[in-house]
Design goal:
This protein is an alpha+beta fold and 422 residues long. The chain is built from nine helices and 17 strands. Strands 3-2-1-4-8 form a five-stranded mixed β-sheet, with helices on one face. The chain has a five-stranded mixed β-sheet with strand order 11-10-9-12-13, with helices on one face. Strands 14-15-17-16 form a four-stranded antiparallel β-sheet. A hairpin with a 2-residue loop joins strand 2 and strand 3 (28-35).
Length: 422
């Protein structure tokens, strides 16, 4: 039988998270180290299981008493726990996941409940399953509260102490003041003040006889722990401590509701570490293209602005009486029309100019006598003329001559429709 014991990080698990693990085969630690999730060992042994340990800082422990009719599989369990723990939680209950003791007591009896962030736990379970390491169970590294124990762990430069008691589990810095606070009064350290006032915090413990405290530390911290505690300390290696934790019957992931992740094997390479340079190259190429498009757009905008400035300059130089430029082409057209009216110069859209062009076209058509005009209708540069007794061939020739003179002409029955071109 083999077990891969993985320590979950405090932050959200990703493909780049470095995990600490211990591989245990037949009760012996055969491999230990740190690696990325995709590089975790995967022994093909019968009965193998993957176990994750939740760090002590990721969990909070609460003691509750469930009412009658509410148990492990009850549909009302989550709502009942939300109501019982609402005043004890720092986060919103909807964001948390609760795990009951594996063998909860009956109604009316207090029992321990572990609370953790739902999203953090779901990302850890799904992330390990995505790299082919599905978890059989998620266990607490420390807990639930029970026997008195002090365990010194961490780095030599900044050691910490895990303090377990029947009421709580906490992680504190290793200092004489901390040890004096977490140790029962019967085990107070010599020369570190009076800790009898802390007995009020432990009023739930029996006071008639000393409470035994188990003292342990990582092998490299035993000497430092004995120096601080002034008494012998048992060496408890990491792999042995994790093996002991793996025997606990808890499963923090029981009842965890997770959103199903879409299976996207085709793009898993995007997350793989070996493709990091390719991802950076693609991002750099996209960045260069974005910068180039912005530069091109800026250049085009600058050219348009220069064109508008040139038109405005021509307007102001040609017509000095224009003070404010709003729509340069429209203002220039109005000024030209105003100038033509002031100088009495005929405009192509005037009635007399259109009649003169029509007369010339009729005469050039080769008629001995001009045809009779039935009716005239002029409005805003459009002249409608009903020409009588004009053969079709000559009518087509007249329309063609008018177009050459700049008057697009169409025919509606016996009526010629002349328009002055722009």
């Amino acid at each position: 039988m083999s077990q891969l014991i993985i320590a979950l990080p405090l932050e959200a698990l990703t493909a780049e998270t470095v995990l600490t693990f211990v591989l245990v085969v037949d009760g012996q630690a055969v491999e230990a180290g740190e690696c990325l999730p995709a590089q975790l060992p995967h022994p093909d042994l019968p009965g193998h299981e993957n176990i994750a340990l939740a760090p002590v800082r990721a969990l909070s422990w609460h003691q509750v008493t469930l009412p009658e009719g509410v148990g492990q599989g009850s549909p009302r369990l989550k709502a009942v726990l939300d109501g019982l723990l609402e005043d004890q939680l720092l986060d919103e209950p909807a964001q948390l996941h609760f795990a009951l003791a594996p063998a909860p007591g009956g109604p009316g009896r207090p029992q321990w409940v572990a609370a953790c962030e739902r999203r953090w736990l779901a990302m850890a379970v799904q992330g390990l399953a995505a790299v082919g390491r599905p978890l059989a169970r998620v266990l607490p590294e420390w807990g639930p509260p029970g026997a008195q124990r002090l365990h010194v762990t961490g780095h030599t430069a900044a050691p910490t102490v895990v303090a377990c008691s029947p009421l709580s589990i906490s992680v504190l810095a290793l200092t004489p003041e901390t040890l004096a606070w977490v140790l029962p009064s019967e085990h107070a350290l010599p020369g570190v003040g009076d800790v009898t006032e802390d007995a009020e915090r432990n009023d739930a413990l029996p006071a008639d006889e000393p409470v035994p405290v188990q003292l342990s530390a990582e092998p490299e911290l035993v000497a430092l722990a004995e120096q601080q505690l002034h008494r012998p300390v048992q060496a408890w290696p990491l792999h042995q401590r994790w093996q002991a934790a793996a025997h606990a019957p808890w499963d923090l992931a029981r009842g965890l509701l997770m959103r199903k992740r879409a299976q996207r094997p085709g793009i898993e390479w995007l997350r793989a570490p070996r493709w990091r340079l390719a991802r950076q190259a693609v991002l750099s190429l996209l960045l260069v293209n974005v910068i180039g498009l912005n530069a091109l757009a800026w250049q085009q905008e600058r050219q348009l602005a220069q064109g508008r400035a040139d038109i405005q300059r021509v307007l102001l130089q040609t017509f000095p009486n224009v003070r404010t430029v709003i729509d340069a082409p429209a203002q220039m057209q109005r000024e030209v029309q105003r100038l033509a009216l002031a100088t009495a110069a005929p405009m192509p859209t005037d009635l007399d100019a259109m009649l003169s062009a029509l007369q010339g076209a009729l005469q050039d058509a080769g008629n001995a006598a001009p045809p009779a005009i039935g009716s005239l209708n002029y409005r805003a540069g459009e002249l409608r003329v009903t020409v009588l007794d004009l053969p079709a061939a000559q009518r087509a020739e007249v329309m063609q001559r008018l177009r050459r003179l700049g008057y697009p002409t169409s025919q509606e029955a016996d009526t010629l429709v002349m328009k002055a071109s722009a």
